[in-house]
Amino acid sequence: MSGNLIIVSAPSGAGKTTLVAEVLCRDAQVKPSISFTSRQPRPGEEQGVHYHFVSRAEFQAMIADGDFLEWAEVHGNLYGTSRRYVEQLRAAGFDVILAIDVQGAAQTRRLFPDAIGVFILPPSWQVLRERLDTRGANSAADLQLRLRNALDETAQCRNFDYVVINDELTTATDELAAIILAERCRLQRRSAVAEQILQTFNKPAELPTR
Ligand code: 5GP
User: Fold this and answer.
1) Span 29-85, pLDDT tens digits
2) Which atom of ligand 1 is nearest to the CA of 39?
3) Residue pLDDT, tens place only, 90-146
4) Relative to the CA of 8, which ligand 1 atom is closest?
5) Does ligand 1 come within 6 angstroms of the Cβ of 100?
6) Ligand 1 center from residue 65 Cα (angstroms)
7) Is 28 exposed, middle or buried (0-12, 13-18, 19+ CB in 10 A)?
8) What is the architecture of the domain spanning 5-184?
9) What Å distances lie between residue 131 and 44, 104, 186, CA to CA?
10) What is the number of the ligand 1 atom nearest to the C-alpha of 77?
């Protein structure tokens, strides 16, 4: 059976990237989708590891070719999920995490109604502001843009299946890992293997017939 599709969205500064990285370290059955983006790499970001960095023209050609499962413009840059890459990982049995914005999350849910939506909330507006102030934004204008976007983004949390509050990283990681694990144990996903096990309960020879 193909793996689950897990959408993780959050406002910028909620700690989504760190949280997802922690879960990936813990669970080898989960793989990240590596998105394409037209934005410039930040210091320390590697081509093909954090993102596939492409020009805006290359990105637009990929849209025209139908390469994206979803794509969106976020904070002035284009971001998209490779349809083929996600299909390959899921077909190989991996659960795939899409760490994407709320617009991409809505597109993905329309296409894959059984995708699992997880929204990461910061403990409060003040905490989000402090986090963005100290490390999340590139400039004063960027900070304002991210804060303004956060108002609309956080309101979208009502459309997700699960909410993880990222106050303490270990607790938030436990919660996200638990959601992924529980979804893997759903009867619907386990029915084939459960049926095989139930076959072994069929008239065991050592029990006398009633
Ligand atoms: P950043 O530039 O800080 O890495 O990402 C900015 C925003 O774009 C984040 O909310 C991130 O989740 C989102 N993002 C990253 N990749 C994708 C993608 O493939 N599709 C969409 N829709 N959003 C993405």
Assistant:
1) 999 999 999 999 989 999 999 999 999 999 999 999 999 999 999 988 999 999 999
2) 2
3) 999 999 999 999 999 999 999 999 999 999 999 999 999 999 888 756 688 888 888
4) 12
5) yes
6) 21
7) exposed
8) 3-Layer(aba) Sandwich (3.40)
9) 20, 24, 36
10) 2
